Every structure is written in structure tokens, then in C-alpha cells.
Automatic annotation (TrEMBL):
EC id: 5.4.99.-
Biological process terms in GO annotation: enzyme-directed rRNA pseudouridine synthesis
Sequence similarity: Belongs to the pseudouridine synthase RluA family.
CDD domains: PseudoU_synth_RluA_like, S4
Name of the protein described by the UniProt record: Pseudouridine synthase
Molecular function terms from GO: catalytic activity, acting on RNA; pseudouridine synthase activity; RNA binding
Keywords of this entry: Isomerase, RNA-binding
Organism: Halostreptopolyspora alba
Its job: Responsible for synthesis of pseudouridine from uracil.
One protein family per Pfam: PseudoU_synth_2
Reactions that this protein is recorded to catalyse: a uridine in RNA = a pseudouridine in RNA
Amino acid sequence: MGDHRSMPVPEGLEGDRLDAALARMFGLSRTRAAELIAEGNVHLDGGAGAKSDRVHAGAWLDVTLPPPPTAPVARPEPVPGMRVLHEDADIVVVDKPTGVVAHPTVGWTGPTVLEGLLASGVQLSTSGAAERQGIVHRLDANTTGVMVLAKSELAYSALKRAFKERMVVKRYHTLVQGHPDPLRGTVDAPIDRHPSGDGRFAVVTGGRPAVTHYDTLEAFRAASLLEVRLETGRTHQIRVHMAALRHPCVGDHLYGADPTLSERLGISRQWLHAVGLGFEHPTEGRHVEFESDYPEDLNRVIEDLRED
């Protein structure tokens, strides 16, 4: 349905061609005005106009303008490779692939866990901002593994509280450069945005408290496989704390990893995987645990190192 307009030709357009007059009156291009005339959408004094007709001031113009184009609404799409590990009335637990963020953010055009689930028909809790519905914690875009989302309002508030009060068991495996000394330990160092403002985080005096426990599982010639347990959940926490120990996650070029080693191992992202998540189920009251195997790219690196 178009928008119908009816009015006299203004005096200032006396003697102009009909397409030029139309373009001036309605802010159209000459081409678009000529198309409207050709489509029979313009009548001058009751008769169908031709684009080269000269108009006279006061002549009656009837125009049907097309509706303005509407921007296509981006429809969420399921995320290829994202597996649902568990779903019930209150929670959904996914195994997040690489290259996927938790929820839509400014400047991110790739897939998100949130939209992927909504596209698959999963109903999520609507607490908090619309773009963060159901989100109680996050994994970086290129960190893979277990992530839980809230489906009910009850689960949303219970899980938010559990994460805040450090009641959630968060286990990660990461491959770091070199060999940490001691082989097991704790990094307790506050984290905040890096003063450079380039999107990195750093150990900063007066930052937010951050505690990371690590334990060496396996040592290779140039790298070590660690199990990491997080007490807090700061952005990039493991990556920042490992870099602060001078043992950055392999492949993590944002935090100083050696590009030559990454290339040799054929890895194009940080070797960091959320292997397990344990918490009290928000409505059933029992402790639940979910685990995820290494994805193919990370697994291949470990197998190559073992053969080395």
C-alpha cells in the first residue's frame, strides 16, 4: 500500500517538466520520479501524466508514493557446531564452539549463543537487558566449552547469585608456553581494562579481585597443559593471569603468545577450553556437573605435542 498525496503544483515550479517538479516536491531522484509516472502513479488535473509534460502553477497533482523500504530484520540463526549438553525447564547447558560470543554486542557481526538458542526454539529467561536474556556468565569468542544459560526467572536469579558468591565450580584446561614454576599455584591479582584502551585487560592495582588456581597436568618440550580453576570470573581472567606469569596461553597473540610456536602447532586461537561446570541446580537443589571434550583443533595440538 502506497501513500496517497493530493495538492496543487506550487508557483515556483511553473513550466517545469513533470518528473523534475515531482522530484523537487517529494525529495525523489529524477529517475525515481520518472518511474512513478511510468507506473501510472501520477495524475495531473485528473489525467495520467507523462514525464516530459510541463506543469502549470495551481494544476492539481495526485500522486501515490511507494511505502519507504523497511530494513530487513535480522533473524537469529542456529549456530553450527553448538551442541546442547543438557536442557530442562530451568537451564540449558551448551558446548560452545569457537568464533561465537555469548550475546550480541556492539561491533560483533558473528554468531552468538543467545541467538543460536532462540533460533532453535529455546525459551530463555527475560531478566536483565533484552540482548542478555538468560546470560549468567560468558566465555570469550574463541574460548570453547561448557556454558549454562537460564530458562526460568528463578534459575536466572539463583545462578547469578551462585556465580557472584563463587559457588560455581569452573574448570578449564589451557596449554601455556613454557613450564610454570611452581608446577601448581594460585594467582591472586586484580584485573581491569588495560590503560591502552585497546580491548585488552591487565593486572592493575585497584582492579577487580581475581583468583586463579592452576595445576600442571602434562609437560611438553615447549609448553604445559594446565588444569585451571577459577574462583572469580573476570573478563579474559585466565589469559591475563597466565600472561602475568610469563606463560601466556598458546595461540593467544593478544596477550603475548609466540606466533612462531602457534604456526608450528597450527593453532589460530588461544588454547583454552572450559572442560567442566558444576553448580547446585536452581530448582532441584542437587549438585550437577557438565563436561566437554576438547574440540578437534585443540585436541590435534595435544596429540602432536605428545608425538613430539
